[in-house]
Amino acid sequence: MCLIIGTMIGAGYASGRELWQFFGQDSSLAILLFTIMFMICCMSIMKISYEQKAGHYLPVLRKIVGRHLTGVYDGMIILYLFTTTVIMLAGSGATWQAFHFSYRLGVLALIIPLILLFVWDVKGIVTVNSFILPLLIGGLLFVLILFITDQNLSMFAHFNETSNWTAAFPFTALNVVPLIAVLGAIGNRMESKKEIWVASVGSGLVLGVVSYLYNNSLIQISEDIILYEIPLFAILKHYPFEMMVFMSVVMWVAIFTTAASGILGLVTRFRDYLRQPLWVLAMVTIAIMLPFTSLGFSTLIEYLYPLYGLLNLYVLASLLLSPFLHRFKIN
C-alpha cells in the first residue's frame, strides 16, 4: 500500500501542479471516478503480478496489453519512467531553488540518497516507503485541513460541480503505468491474495480523499496559482516561514519516493541483461538523466503528463476490463 501511494504521490502531485493540470474546476465527480478506477487497476495489476510471480514488469505488461502490443508499451513505459524521474529530479531542484539554493544542488541532494537506497536492492525501497509515507500523507492532510479551517472554506462548496468528469480517464491512465512497472517488480514477493485487496482499496481511498481536499483548496486560490510554479506555495503563503519549510521537506520526500519507484522500474527491467548490482544500474541511469533536468519542472509536467495520459488509455481500458474478462474466461 505504501509502495503504491509512494509511486503515485510525486513532485507533480504533492506540488499540486498535476492535480490542477488535470482536474481544477468542476471535478468532484472526476476525482470519485479516479478513486474507483484506481482501485480496480491496482487489483488487476497485483493479481497478474502475483500469478506470474514476476520480478520485473514485462510478464505483467504482456498479460495486460497482449503479445503484439507488448513491445510498443514496453518502450512507452521505459520512456515514461525515464522522463518522470527526470521530472522528480527537476522538482527537487525547484524545491531547493525556492529557498534560494542552487538548482543543481537540489538535484544532487536527490541523487545521492537514491543511489544509496538501491544498495539494499528492492527491499530497501519497500522498507523506506513504509517509514516515510505516513509522514508524507500526514503532512499533506495537516496543511490542507488547516488551510480549509483557517480560511473558513467549505469542503463541499464545489461538490455539485461535475462537468469535468472526463478528466478522470487520462489522469488515471497516466498513473497506472508506473504502477505496472513497480508492482510488476514485486510479484515474487507477495505472500497472499489478501494483500491485493488491502493495498488496492486502502491506497485508493487515501488518494481519493487527499486528491479531493487538495483540489478543493486549489480552487479557492485559483487566481494565485498562475504566479507560482509550485501551487502548494500559494497555499503556504498564508502561513509562517516554518510551515513552508516543513511542507517543502514533505514535498521533497514525495519527490524522493516517486523517483525511487521510477528507478526501480527501470533497473529491474534491465537487470537480467546487464547483471550488475541495482545501485550500479541506478547510478548509470541517473547519470544519463542529468542533462534533461535543465528543461524545468512545470514545463515537463505541462506537456508530458497530458500526452502520456492519452497514450495510456488503452492500458487503462484493459485493466478495468481485466476482472470481468477473467471472470467469464474471455482471453
TrEMBL record:
It comes from the Bacteria. The chain crosses the membrane at residues 30-50, 71-95, 101-119, 131-148, 168-187, 196-214, 243-266, 278-297, 303-325. InterPro entries: YkvI-like. Keywords: Membrane, Transmembrane, Transmembrane helix. PANTHER family: CONSERVED MEMBRANE PROTEIN, MEMBRANE PROTEIN. This is Membrane protein YkvI. It comes from Halobacillus amylolyticus.
